[in-house]
Specification:
Number of helices: 5
CATH topology of the domain at 58-161: Topoisomerase I, Chain A, domain 4
Order of helices and strands: HHHHH
Helix content: 55-70%
CATH architecture of the domain at 58-161: Orthogonal Bundle
Number of strands: 0
Structural class: mainly alpha
Strand content: under 5%
């Protein structure tokens, strides 16, 4: 019995620490380290006259293409209106179909401008250069024009489909 009592006291003595040496509840140094992403300055694109000229040329092509597309769309709308109520295969219906084919061709400048601008932006990224605001703006405008033109073609095709018997 004495042995058990001595063994118990020895075991209890190992569980205690000297007074004043309790672990601190203050944050440890590792807990004070911030894991937030560091602030990095946003790179500013340097002016590039050659790129600005390329963008201006592409914009001019886009603008000319948009004007031609709008004229073609008005022509197609007029031909579709004339073909309304006529059977498929009639001369007026075929004229409307031809106008729609020409309209699809007139959409090419917008698609080409968008592709060219995206290629320029991609090349800048490959070269490790920051985004170029004028390029981003022109690309957004080209995408908007291409999307609007496709929507107009889709609506005209739907109208042409409703004209036949």
């Amino acid at each position: 019995m004495r042995f058990i009592l001595l063994l118990s006291l020895t075991a209890l003595a190992g569980c205690t620490q000297p007074a004043g040496r309790y672990p601190s509840l203050l944050p440890r140094p590792i807990e004070q380290t911030s894991l937030a992403e560091p602030d990095r300055p946003v790179p500013v694109a340097a002016p590039d006259a050659a790129l600005d000229q390329q963008i201006a040329d592409i914009r001019a092509s886009l603008d000319a293409g948009t004007k031609a597309f709008n004229a073609g769309a008005q022509d197609a709308e007029a031909k579709i209106a004339v073909a309304r109520g006529l059977p498929q295969g009639s001369e007026r219906w075929l004229d409307a179909q031809v106008a729609m084919g020409q309209l699809a061709e007139l959409r090419r400048p917008a698609a080409a401008a968008l592709a060219d601008l995206e290629a320029l932006a991609t090349q800048r990224g490959v070269n490790g250069l920051p985004p170029y605001p004028a390029l981003d703006s022109a690309s957004a405008d080209a995408e908007k024009a291409a999307t609007a033109q496709q929507a107009r073609i889709d609506s005209l095709e739907a109208a042409l489909g409703d004209t036949g018997n």
